[in-house]
Every structure is written in structure tokens, then in C-alpha cells.
Specification:
Largest sheet: 8 strands, antiparallel
Shape: globular
Number of strands: 13
Oligomer: single chain
Helix content: 10-25%
């Protein structure tokens, strides 16, 4: 049976183009329930335009349930595997990939989630077709995230959805889980090491039972992307978060020669927005006061843009895992915003610096242990808001 892609439950920012739904950001993807023996997805990508180490990667999470009637699709965490259960990971090595999502010799009822584990900056992922050998059960609750989807929700299901806070994370490689499974000094980065599902944002959402969305990109900053302090003497302003975040998927749509569309925040109205940006700006600020002030002003402007787009959201700005030079500047930006918008709930969280005894990932990025510690600190700070 060929499944109508619109009827799937979708997560994260996604867009449609020529009958294909693209889900490129970390932890974006789709979910469905079926009773049967096999499910195969046709997923498009662009390996011919990527290094072998930067191809798209998806993760497949399968949970068996007793009866299809149990499936409501009311929450991301409903029927999600327990912590420690590893997904099946598939590297998208072809332009058109036939991915077996589930296969069993006997008929089973399963909930299947497919999430993008590599980030938007590298290989893309577009669902072209989903075929199952069995009977699908569609979520009773679906968020109106696309044209043609039902926005009429049963009152009970609406209450279930309302009970779960929504958190949007805006960040860089740390939020993407870059290099999390690598080893500093031994490995060079590759997308198969990237694990946003083990990073602080995912862990925070799980601990709080929150629906979540990631808008994150490695090397990105507010005033400058990462530059080598020893050899580069100008900022890298080609692809900054303030010019990327407002769009559904700016790079993904440009790849397909489309004009980027502004993201419709009504598809995922956040209760909390977490901003973790500044690690890459540190490489350009280099202790120079005028550059630091530019960072403060840029963060202050981004906070206001977030507030104007999502006026009911509380805002948390955090920094510090890979460098703490701008942590006080984060607090300064929050205070400046509060002067103009005193009724908006906003706070700053200073993460602990990563430690070698906790392990260091590829390219000096945080390990799973460090991400867990950061999540614990963020959860403690956000609990009062949830």
C-alpha cells in the first residue's frame, strides 16, 4: 500500500516540492503506525554534491505495541523507545534511497519514527514515497503543519496536546550533536557521528515531556561564523543565524532553486525558545570590546525577533559548553531586552565548560556525558516554566 505522505505525523520544519516532502533540520522527520510485515521509504538526497563524510543520515525508531487502537499520536514521546535503545541508522549514499524501515516474518503492530540525524548543513533528505505491506493507523491528532492537513482536532486530543509544552531550540553544532560519537584527536568529523538525539536539546525535551523543534547549524554565529583565529582576520558573515532562522529551510529551498519561504510559526507555536549561540562568535570577538558589543547587540536583536514572532513564548539564552568568554555578554543582552520588554519572561543559563575526563568528541565537541550534564542544568532551569 502506497501511503499518502500528508497523512503522516510530521515533526520539525519541512516543506513540499514536486510531490516530495523535505525534512532537513536535525530531529525533523515523520511518524506512522502500521499493522503488517514491511515498510519501505524512498528518500531523496544529494550525495553527489557532498563529501563522503557529509552525507545525509536518518535514524529509524521502531516500537511494537499490542493494538493499533492504542495509537493516538498525541505526543512525540508516545511510543518512543526507552533511553539506551539505539535506532537503525541509514546513510543516504544515493540520490534515491530505498530504505527498509521495518521488516518482520510475522505481522506486528508498530509505531515507526524516522528522524534526520545529520544536520541541515550537509546532505538533505526528502520523502518521495512510503509503501507498507499491511494496514496503516493514522494519528488521531495531527498539527496543521501543511496545506491540506486537518486542523479539526477532537477535544480530548487537543487537551493532550495542550498539556505538553513546546520548546524551540536555536543553536549551532552543539545543538546538532556534532561529533558526539567521535573522539577528539582520533577522529575527524563525519555525519554518521552526529547524534542530535543524544544532545542536550533532545534530552531536555525528553525530561520535560515537551514537543520540540531544532533550528541549528554547525559553525553558525550571530555576528560571525567560526573563523580560525590564527589565520583569518575578517568575520565570516555569509550565513548567520539571524538571516537563517526566520525561514522554513532557507538552504534546502535554495538547493532546489526555490525562493525561501518564511516559516509559519503557527505550525509550532513555542511556549519556550532556547537560544544557544555565541560559541562561534568567540572565534571572531577575540576579546575586542567593539566586537563583543556587536555580539551583545546582535543577540539582543535576535531575542526581540523571537519575541515578536512568538509573543507568548518565554526565552532562555544559554552558552558555555565550548567557551565561556561571552557568557556575561549573554546576560547583558537579556538585561537590555528586559528593559524594553519588562513583562517578557527571559533568563540566561551558563553551562559548565566541558571537561576532558567526561570525554571530548570529534573536533573538540562535547561528548554524550557533557550533553547529559548540560541537559540536567537546563531542565532544572526550565522546570518552573513547564
Amino acid at each position: 500500500m502506497n501511503i499518502n505522505l500528508i497523512k503522516l505525523k510530521w515533526y520539525g520544519r519541512n516543506f513540499d516540492y514536486k510531490g516530495v516532502r523535505y525534512f532537513n533540520y536535525s530531529c525533523s522527520g515523520f511518524e506512522f503506525c502500521m499493522t503488517g510485515k514491511k515498510a519501505v521509504a524512498t528518500i531523496l538526497s544529494d550525495p553527489n554534491k557532498q563529501k563522503k563524510t557529509e552525507r545525509g543520515v536518518i535514524g529509524i525508531y521502531v516500537t511494537e505495541i499490542k493494538d493499533a487502537k492504542e495509537y493516538k499520536g498525541a505526543s512525540f514521546w508516545e511510543s518512543f523507545p526507552e533511553e539506551g535503545v539505539e535506532p537503525v541508522r541509514i546513510e543516504l549514499i544515493k540520490q534515491e534511497n530505498e530504505c527498509v524501515l521495518f521488516e518482520s516474518a510475522v505481522e506486528k503492530t508498530v509505531v515507526i519514527k524516522v528522524l534526520k540525524l545529520s544536520e541541515c548543513a550537509f546532505g538533505y533528505a526528502g520523502l518521495k514515497k512510503l509503501v507498507i505491506k499491511g494496514v496503516p493507523t493514522y494519528a488521531a491528532l495531527r498539527e496543521p503543519q501543511g496545506v491540506g492537513r486537518s486542523a479539526t482536532l477532537p477535544s480530548l486530543q487537543s487537551k493532550l496536546a495542550a498539556a505538553s509544552p513546546k520548546i524551540e531550540f536555536i543553536g549551532d553544532s552543539i545543538t546538532c550533536g556534532y561529533g558526539l560519537e567521535g573522539i577528539w584527536g582520533k577522529d575527524t568529523f563525519k555525519t554518521m557521528q552526529e547524534r542530535p538525539d543524544k544532545a542536550y536539546a533532545f534530552l531536555t525535551a525528553r525530561a520535560l515531556g515537551a514537543e520540540f523543534q531544532l533550528c541549528s547549524w554547525s559553525g553558525i554565529g550571530i555576528t560571525s561564523n567560526y573563523v580560525d583565529p590564527a589565520t583569518i582576520f575578517l568575520p565570516d558573515t555569509q550565513w548567520l543565524m539571524p538571516a537563517c532562522w526566520p525561514y522554513t529551510d532557507k538552504k534546502g529551498q535554495l538547493r532546489l532553486k526555490q525562493e525561501p519561504e518564511i516559516w509559519d510559526a503557527s505550525k509550532f507555536p513555542p511556549d519556550i525558545v532556547v537560544i544557544n549561540l555565541g560559541t562561534n562568535d568567540i572565534s571572531w570577538v577575540r576579546g575586542k570590546e567593539e566586537r563583543r558589543l556587536a555580539y551583545v547587540a546582535g543577540l539582543r536583536q535576535l531575542i526581540e525577533a523571537v519575541h515578536r514572532r512568538s509573543p507568548n513564548a518565554k526565552i532562555c539564552c544559554c552558552l558555555g559548553i565550548m567557551g565561556q568568554e561571552l557568557c556575561d555578554s549573554v546576560k547583558e543582552a537579556c538585561k537590555l531586552f528586559s528593559k524594553d520588554f519588562p513583562s517578557v519572561a527571559i533568563k540566561a543559563v551558563k553551562f559548565d565548560m566541558q571537561k576532558e575526563e567526561d570525554g571530548i568528541g570529534a573536533d573538540w565537541h562535547p561528548s554524550a556525558v557533557t550533553h547529559r550534564k548540560a541537559a540536567n542544568k537546563l531542565v532544572a532551569s526550565l522546570k518552573k516554566w513547564c
